[in-house]
Prior knowledge:
The chain is 44% helix and 23% strand. By secondary structure, the chain is of the alpha/beta class.
Amino acid sequence: MRILLAEDDRVSQRIARRALEGAGHEVEVADDGLIAWQRLLADPDRLLVTDLMMPHMDGIELIRRVRTGMFPAYIYILVVTALGDVDSLINGLELGADDYVAKPYDPRELVARVAVGERIVTLERDLQASRRAYRENATVDATTGLLNRRAAVARLREEVAGAADGGTAISIMLLSAATARGAATTTGCQPADTWLRPIASSLRGELRSYDAIGRWGGDDTLEILPGVPWGPEEVLVVLPGVDPSQAVAIIDRLRRSSLADGSTTPAFAAGLAGVRAGERPDTQEMLSRAATMLAAARNTPTQAGLALASEAKG
Length: 314
């Protein structure tokens, strides 16, 4: 466990440091509360062991700052206090200290109380990791790693509202992944990720980090119809700040990327819709237009690597 020891007394520093390092902890010493505070601001990922009586900033003020500060994770605080200094101890605990040990202490007690803090910090980290995983699972499609449909809709509405408020351009693309290249007339069922994972990887590599990419529809297993090169699975791409003519250039870049393996058969069909700066976007209208364009693209003789229908004008 990484520990910051705030202690101004040299003898107490040596005793505490020797005991904690002997138990396998990594210890950094701060000679007063102000130094300890500055080090926590720079690197908060550690347990704090602090004396209460120190120059420049005492332990009470240090505890208050830690508990009112905005840190990414919980900082466990163990107070070291003089035997009989009950008022200061109560004040420290009321401000948010987690535990205490009274001087003079047996070094084994200090190690044992730090071990309690370490267990609590570990539980807190595990809980945060579980919450992050839950939030991710609630928004991410497990098959592709893209946003799921609900998250994609929420992101689209957010970006459309931002474009409407700011008078900025926005474009969306609906992409239909091709069935397995060279096997467009094969019938039967194949997993959706046969097509979706490659296109998801291509999109991530070519688009900006803040563009939204979501799985729009379909089942995990798609039926391949004889003579139909496009599966029913679709991917939604939201491009904030991009007008339709600029989006065409982005799709062309995706087309060239899809040909990097030397293939000459289409990787996807694309339907594009959007508004220019100053125009009023509407979520449902844009989705309807993009779906119409995608349907047209599916019936359009393909360029190498791409079938595109767009409302963009030159």
